[in-house]
Design goal:
40% of the residues lie in helices and 13% in strands. With 469 residues, it is an alpha/beta fold. Bound molecules: 6-O-phosphono-beta-D-glucopyranose (BG6).
Length: 469
C-alpha cells in the first residue's frame, strides 16, 4: 500500500533510547548488589565480562545529561533485581533503592519519561541455586520484587515492562547466558520455566493495576515477522509454525490468557507441555496489558523441515537454525546482513508492526531496534557511524508508514542509548549514539564521545520525525 501522504508522528511520541542494567551499569558487586546468573555465567572467549560495562552506575548523571541533550522524551532502562534483593527475596537492599531513586529523579529532572523494565535477563543467582524459574517459588519472589518496585518508584514511573524477551530466553537462552547449565532435559524444563514466567508476568500486571491505577504495564518480547523461504505451501506452513512458537505463544498468553493452539500442539508433540496448576489459567486470563512493547532487529525466514537436519546449536536471537520436523532456518536472498550475520529488513519492521496491531489492537511501543557494528574512533574524537544512521532512518521511515497504515505506535526507544556490552559479543559490537571509550579488556578512560548518529537523532527528535536526513 502506497501512501500519497504519510501521517505525522503523534504529538507526544516517546522518542528515546534503551539500555539494560547488567549491560550498562557495571558496579557488579557494589553497594550490596548480589550476583545474578549473568555475573556467574561463562563468557565467550575474547569478550569482556559485565563487571564494569559502561560504568553507568557511577556516571549516570553525565549520561542522562547527554540523553537530554539529544532531546530524549523517554529513557527505557532495567532495574537490577539483585540490587534491590541481593538474594532474590528476603531483605531489601536500601542502597539499591537509593540508586534507582536517584536515577529516576535525575531522568525526570530533565523532563524525560522513565520506562522501566522490571527484569532483563539478570535473574538473581541465589534464586537460580534454588531451581530458578523451574521452581514455582520464583513466581512469588518476582511478585514480591514487583511490589517493592511499585511501592518505591510507582509515584514517578508510569510505564512498566514485565520481562524483556522472555521468548529469547526460552529459544536462545544458551547464547544469551540465561540457561542453567545443570538443567536436565533442558527443552522441557525451559517450557516449564516459560509457564512460570507467564504466570509471574500476569501477577505483575494485575498487581500494577491494583497498586498504581494510573500506571501502564505490558510485556516486552522480541517479535519479528516470519517469512516462508518460498511460496511452496509447506514452507508457508513452516513459517506459520515458527511464528506461533516464536511470537504468538508469548503475546496470545499476555493478551488473551490462553496458549496459542499451534504452539501448544508443538509442545504436546515434543513432550514439552508444562504442568499447569489449578488457578494458573485464571490468573493468566484475568491479567491484561495496557500496551505491547516489543524489540525488533530483523525478520526471520524459514523453510519446511524434512526432519533430517543436523541441529546441534541454537543460533542466537536472530540466527535461526531450526528444529527437525517443525521448521528450518533459511537466509533471505533479498536482504543484506550486518557484520554479525543478522539480516537487515526495515520493511519487515512495518510488516511486524502491522501484524502485532492487527492481532491485538493494543498501542505499541518499540523498545529495541538498532545496528550492532564495530565503530572506529577517528582522530579528533569523531565516530562516523553513517551505517547506523542509515539503518535507523530506514526503520523510522517504515514505522511512519505503519502509522500511516493505521497502526497505533506511541514510542521508539532504539538500542542502545549509549554503548554497552552485547549479550554475547562483547563491547566491540556497539549500538549506542554515544561512544564509550574502552575496549574488550582495556578499560581506558571510559569517556563519553558523541557519535554522528547522536547529532542526527537529536534532529530527528526535535523535528518529531519530520527530518530524517
Ligand atoms: C536483545 C536484548 O536481544 O538484543 C538486548 O534485549 C541485546 O539485551 C540486544 O543486547 C542486542 O543483542 P546482542 O546480542 O547484540 O547484544
Amino acid at each position: 500500500m502506497k501512501h500519497e501522504q504519510r501521517k505525522p508522528f503523534p504529538k507526544d511520541f516517546l522518542w528515546g533510547g534503551s539500555t539494560s542494567a547488567y549491560q550498562v551499569e557495571g558496579a557488579w558487586n557494589e553497594d550490596g548488589k548480589g550476583p545474578s546468573v549473568i555475573d556467574m555465567a561463562k563468557y565467550p572467549e575474547g569478550t569482556t565480562d559485565f563487571k564494569v560495562a559502561s560504568d553507568h552506575y557511577h556516571r549516570y548523571k553525565e549520561d542522562i545529561a547527554l540523553f537530554a541533550e539529544m532531546g530524549f522524551k523517554a529513557y527505557r532502562f532495567s532495574i537490577a533485581w539483585t540490587r534491590i534483593y541481593p538474594n532474590g527475596d528476603g531483605e531489601v537492599n536500601r542502597k539499591g533503592i537509593e540508586f534507582y531513586n536517584n536515577l529516576i529523579n535525575e531522568i525526570r529532572k530533565h523532563g524525560i519519561e522513565p520506562i522501566v523494565t522490571i527484569y532483563h535477563f539478570d535473574l538473581p543467582f541465589a534464586l537460580q541455586e534454588k531451581g530458578g524459574w523451574s521452581n514455582r517459588e520464583t513466581i512469588d519472589a518476582y511478585e514480591n520484587y514487583c511490589r517493592t518496585l511499585f511501592e518505591h518508584f510507582g509515584d514517578r514511573v508510569k510505564y512498566w515492562l514485565t520481562i524483556n524477551e522472555q521468548n529469547m530466553m526460552i529459544l536462545h537462552g544458551e547464547a544469551i547466558g540465561t540457561v542453567d547449565p545443570n538443567l536436565k532435559n533442558p527443552k522441557k524444563a525451559l517450557y516449564q520455566q516459560n509457564h512460570h514466567m507467564l504466570v509471574a508476568q500476569a501477577k505483575a500486571m494485575a498487581l500494577c493495576h491494583q497498586m498504581l491505577p494510573d500506571a501502564k504495564i505490558g510485556p516486552a518480547p522480541n517479535i519479528v515477522t516470519i517469512y516462508p523461504a518460498s511460496s511452496k505451501p509447506e514452507d508457508v506452513l513452516a513459517a506459520n509454525n515458527y511464528a506461533a512458537i516464536r511470537n504468538w505463544l508469548y503475546l496470545d498468553m499476555a493478551v488473551y490468557g490462553r496458549y496459542n493452539n499451534i504452539a501448544w500442539t508443538y509442545l504436546e508433540q515434543k513432550g514439552y507441555t508444562p504442568t499447569i496448576l489449578e488457578g494458573d489459567m485464571e490468573i493468566l486470563q484475568n491479567a491484561k496489558p495496557d500496551f505491547i512493547a516489543f524489540n525488533y532487529y530483523t525478520s526471520q525466514t524459514v523453510a519446511a523441515s524434512d526432519g533430517k537436519e543436523d541441529v546441534n546449536h541454537t543460533g542466537d536471537q536472530h540466527i535461526t537454525v531450526g528444529e527437525p520436523g517443525v521448521y528450518k532456518g533459511a537466509s533471505n536472498p533479498h536482504l543484506k546482513k550486518n557484520e554479525f550475520g543478522w539480516e537487515i529488513d526495515p520493511v519487515g519492521f512495518r510488516t511486524t508492526l502491522r501484524e502485532i496491531y492487527d492481532r491485538y489492537h493494543l498501542p505499541l511501543i518499540v523498545t529495541e531496534n538498532g545496528l550492532g557494528a564495530i565503530d572506529q574512533l577517528e582522530e579528533g574524537d569523531v565516530i562516523n557511524d553513517t551505517y547506523r544512521i542509515e539503518f535507523l532512518r530506514n526503520h523510522i521511515e517504515q514505522m511512519q508508514l505503519a502509522i500511516s497504515d493505521g497502526v497505533e505506535v506511541f514510542g521508539f526507544c532504539p538500542w542502545s542509548a549509549i554503548d554497552l556490552v552485547s549479550t554475547h559479543q562483547g563491547i566491540s559490537k556497539r549500538y549506542g549514539f554515544i561512544y564509550v571509550n574502552r575496549d574488550e579488556f582495556d578499560l581506558k578512560d571510559l569517556r563519553r564521545i558523541r557519535k554522528q548518529s547522536f547529532y542526527w537523532y537529536k534532529q530527528v527528535i526535535s523535528s518529531n520525525g519530520a527530518n530524517l536526513d
